[in-house]
Amino acid sequence: MKYVYSFSKERVEGDRGMKELLGGKGANLAEMAGLGLPVPPGFTCTTEACDAYYKLGRTKLFAAMKPEIEAALKRLEKVTGKTFGKGPNPLLLSVRSGAAVSMPGMMDTVLNLGLTPSTIKALIETSGNERFVLDSYRRFIQMFGDVVMGVDHHAFERELEAVKKSRRTKLDTDLTVKDLAELIERYKKVYKKATSKPFPTNPMEQLMAGIDAVFRSWNTSRAAKYRELNDIRGLLGTAVNVQTMVFGNSGANSATGVAFTRDPSTGDNKYFYGEYLVNAQGEDVVAGIRTPQEITLKGSRAWAKSQGVSEKDRKAKFPSLEEVMPKAFKELDRIRVRLEKHYKDMQDLEFTIENGKLYILQTRNGKRTAKAAVRIATDLAKEKLITEKQAVLSVDPASLDQLLHPVFVKASEDKAQQIAVGLPASPGAATGQVVFTAEDAEAWAAKGKRVILCRTETSPEDIGGMDAAAGILTSRGGMTSHAAVVARGMGRCCVAGVGDVNINYATKRFTCSGVTIKEGDWISLNGSIGAVYKGQIETVDPSLTGPFGTIMKLADKYRKLGVRTNADTPHDAAVAVKFGAEGIGLCRTEHMFFEGHRIVSFRRLILVAETVKDLREDHGVEDLTALQKAVSKDKKAVDAIKQYKQALRELLPLQRKDFVGIFKALKGRPCTVRLLDPPLHEFLPQDADGQKEMAETMGVKPIEIKRLVEALHEFNPMLGHRGCRLGITYPDVTEMQTRAICEAAVAVKGSKPEIMIPLVGHVKELANQKAIVERTIADVEQKKGVKLNVLIGTMIEVPRAAVTADEIAKEAEFFSFGTNDLTQMGCGFSRDDAGKFLKDYVALGIYEKDPFQMLDQAGVGKLVELACTGGRKTRKDLKLGICGEHGGEPSSIGFCHNVGLDYVSCSPYRVPIARLSAAQAAIRG
Ligand code: PEP
Ligand code: MG
After folding, report:
1. What is the reported pLDDT for 285?
2. Residue 873 vs residues 335, 383, 389, 425, 805: alpha-carbon distances, Å
3. Which ligand is closest in space to the CA of residue 822?
4. CB contact set of 472 (below 8 Å; sequence gap of 6+)
5. Global pTM?
6. What is the average pLDDT across 831-839?
7. What pLDDT is stored for residue 653 in this prediction?
């Protein structure tokens, strides 16, 4: 096996297509050398070598690879005219790591490798610059010690500070030859003390130790964590780039810098963005000791303005590269244009100027914010550097989140103190004062305060407070918990399941990571990454026009999937339409009962429903008025029927009003309304206050309410009396809801309601509910003298329904996949409790990702495919959609495209993400 690949103008073994083998850096260095750009020559040890390092062990690999390295060194000596480890013209090297994907978690750079007492002497003679050579040596000892041998860098910095202090100077550049010589001796002592060995003077030993350290760095916990966090999988390892040193620190005519061909934070292309330092080596630019200067004059003036630096001072102290080294600048600018044209993307460059001569040390597609990504994609398409399809593919759909919500000012977030991390339940940024009850959230917000509502978990009673809060934090619950689902629907920032947060409602405080947060203290939440910070962080608002609008238009041009939204209020529907939703794919009607006083009517209904059902069975009478007559002597029974009727009477107009509002907001777009599907425990008054309130409303004793609540208690409510099971046992609810939907459709011309029966597992369940729905539609049509065109369909969210889809389709005009429940029941993971162990499952690689977030295509996906095939076998024109949380997740959307769904439906703020993901899936084919 070949482990070492050379790159130089004279001999290039590789190109940009070989990232997997040579790493991103190595592949691009080879590519640039092939283009004839001024790249210092070198060679790359492959990722296969790294793989072998772990599989065969260090000794075996090095025995096989060393002869190749020696041969590559010979070639390098030939093209550079220098010799490794010897004078008169010694060859010095840099050693860097570079995987196929850029990974800041791995080893940093070691520069100036090959410096030994004899090469130092030779170099001083050839360069005539002793200071430069000693400065390079002290840097080498520190970097080699820190990066290769793990010596604490503070130990070196303490010595540097001590020498500077004794010379009364602040700048490294002020140190003289004598000072540097002293520093080198001090550094050597630090090295020896920490490693129990003298600093190596054999250059080959230095080089092999450097390569060894790079391979080792691939498997440090820091690198593994980075890969885990960034979903980097399936790589062999890192490559090692060994490159001839060029010196940006060899005097006033030398410099080093980094540059972006376009602005990485905004995508602007007004001037060449980048920074440099005269007489410096790479690490000085990022170390923050000296202030890096702008490359262009324009950029320099803009910088000076933002910093309040006068033009005179700017010119004297911080001039641009364009002014200081105009020739090198011109060449760099030409290379910028050439590289962007060649790579057809924004590039991130590293360069060094040695005695006036420019070298390019690295190029790669530059990292960018979502804002810049969208801008760069649309600009490059306009400039015809890329096609429209390439522009659509170049933006990461998930990153669009950043553009739809207020976000933190990055610099402020970077400075903030993070105290915990939870699930990124609902994106955006929020900063506010902590409150612990929904009532307080509403009361404080009414006084104009910004609040963060902190709860162990939320329930329907909290809805007002959730709406009033800028953000929501819960210490329990997963991505489909009440807090998460409701917050996403509202577009409210939410971090859920923050296990480290211990909330004490009695003392109104929570503790976390040794920090105590009291009511009224400021905290900040980043719902896009799940971070919780102490204190206030500055936020900025989103803008939906410009390049964002352009990329959305392009997405719509190429996508085949329809995109609908999950929305339960006119406000959410309107927001989603603004984001491009083509209708509602899931209107959860039980959520409508969360608001204000409605919960009381709803509770009245469910608390007496069971009694009414028993009475019907006992007396064999269906009609409620007739039943009331039949039981007229039993006051309790009469009362229950009255309460039941009253609740239905109260709820009908409220529901109708809701639907009128939603249909109006949709302006003729279709609306799939799901009939009632409440896990009952979320709605019952569990606490004494709630029970007292219901007792007063219903004119009974609190103890009676308590008994009723207990009687309705379920051990497993998520698999209990919910969905169509409720409609089957309490048919009046199905009838009332259908009536409300139909009457609203009559009131709002052009509305297109679709009625969806939830949690069906058996076709007979669907047939039962469908009969009530059809009967009610006919009744409204007859009474109003209109013809309504209402589709009737079902959710596929119970595995039994998926495997009997051909049967189900006999009764259903459409299927909508409820992949939240389908995952719960398909994988056998409780939606409420699985959060506790799923993290471990993901860490162990049992599931690639939390299956409630990313569809488990191999398992749950099979059920979806089965249902699509079965359903369409029975009914060719069966409409197919998805309304589980996966409808807004990019890879799951790709799956939906591939299995031929007609649309996806997701929360309003995910609509743009779904549009772009659908387009990407269609383009990829
Ligand atoms: C589902 O189960 O996927 C679904 C959309 O319904 P809910 O989350 O309301 O159970
Ligand atoms: Mg469901």
Report:
1. 62
2. 59, 48, 34, 38, 9
3. 1
4. 426, 452, 453, 454, 455, 458, 466, 483, 487, 492, 493, 494, 495, 496, 525
5. 0.79
6. 88
7. 95
CB of 478 within 6 A of ligand 1: the answer is no
In this model, does residue 289 exceed pLDDT 70? no
Q: What is the pLDDT of residue 489?
A: 66
824 lines ligand 1 (CB under 6 A): no
Q: In a 3-state reduction of DSSP, which class is residue 847? A: coil
DSSP secondary structure string, 742-779? HHHHHHSTT-EEEEEE-S--SHHHHHHHHHHHHHHHHH
pLDDT, one tens digit per residue, over 444-494 is 998 889 999 999 988 877 888 998 999 999 998 777 678 887 887 677 899
Average pLDDT, the chain: 92
Average pLDDT over residues 585-603: 85
Q: Is 826 in the pocket of ligand 1 (CB under 6 A)?
A: no
- Residues with Cβ within 5 Å of ion ligand 2? 797, 818, 821
Q: Using the mean position of ligand 1's atoms as its centre, give its distance from the Cα of residue 452 in Å.
A: 27
Does residue 820 have its Cβ closer than 6 Å to ligand 1? yes
Four-residue CA torsion sign, 613, 614, 618, 619: negative
Assign 511 a pLDDT band (cuts: 50, 70, 90).
very high
C-alpha count within 13 angstroms, C-beta hemisphere, residue 812: 38
Task: Check residue 114 and report its DSSP letter.
Answer: T
Alpha carbon of 486 to those of 278, 563, 745, 869: distances in Å? 55, 20, 26, 33
Q: Report the relative pairing of strands 539-540 and 407-408 from DSSP bridges.
A: antiparallel
In a mutational test of the pocket of ligand 1, which residue from 488, 721, 797 has the highest number of ligand atoms less than 8 Å from its CB? 797
Whose Cα sits closest to atom 10 in ligand 1?
Answer: 821
Q: Say what the pLDDT of residue 287 is.
A: 54
Q: What are the beta bridge partners of residue 424?
A: 495
772 Rama sector, left if φ>0, alpha if ψ -120 to 50, beta otherwise:
alpha
Average pLDDT over residues 600-627: 93
Match 């992949």 to its residue by tokens: 819
What are the backbone dihedrals phi and psi of residue 539, each rounded to the nearest 5 degrees, phi first?
Answer: -120, 160
Ligand 2 centre distance from Cα of residue 295 (Å): 56
CA of 759 to the centre of ligand 2 (A): 6
CA pair distance 110, 140, nearest whole angstrom: 7
State the catalytic residues: 482, 883
Contacts of residue 203, Cβ cutoff 8 Å, sequence gap at least 6: 84, 85, 113, 114, 116, 119
- Ligand 2 centroid to 312 CA: how many Å? 67
Alpha carbon distances (Å) from 155 to 4, 139, 177: 35, 14, 21
**Is the beta carbon of 890 within 6 A of some atom in ligand 1?**
no
Q: How confident is the model at residue 303 (pLDDT cuts 50, 70, 90)?
A: confident
> For residue 284, what pLDDT is reported?
66
Dihedral pair phi/psi, residue 579, rounded to 5°: -85, 0
Ligand 1 center–CA 520 separation, angstroms: 35
Positive or negative, the Cα torsion across 22, 24, 29, 32? positive
- Give the residue, by CA position, lying nearest to ligand 1 atom 6: 818
Closest CA to ligand 1's atom 8? 820
Q: Per this entry, what is the length of the chain? A: 925
Choose one of 485, 677, 823, 855 to mutate for the ligand 1 pocket test, by most ligand atoms within 8 angstroms of C-beta: 677
Coil, helix or strand for 431?
strand
The residue whose C-alpha atom lies closest to atom 3 belonging to ligand 1 is 818
How does 680-696 read in b/e, with b if 16+ C-beta sit within 10 Å?
Answer: bbbbbbeeeebbebbbe
Q: Please give the order of strands across the beta sheet that includes 239-244.
A: 4-7, 42-45, 239-244, 93-98, 110-113
Judged by its nearest atom, the ligand closest to the C-alpha of residue 817 is 1
Q: Residue 273: CB partners within 8 Å, gap ≥ 6?
A: 259, 260, 261, 262, 263, 264, 295, 299
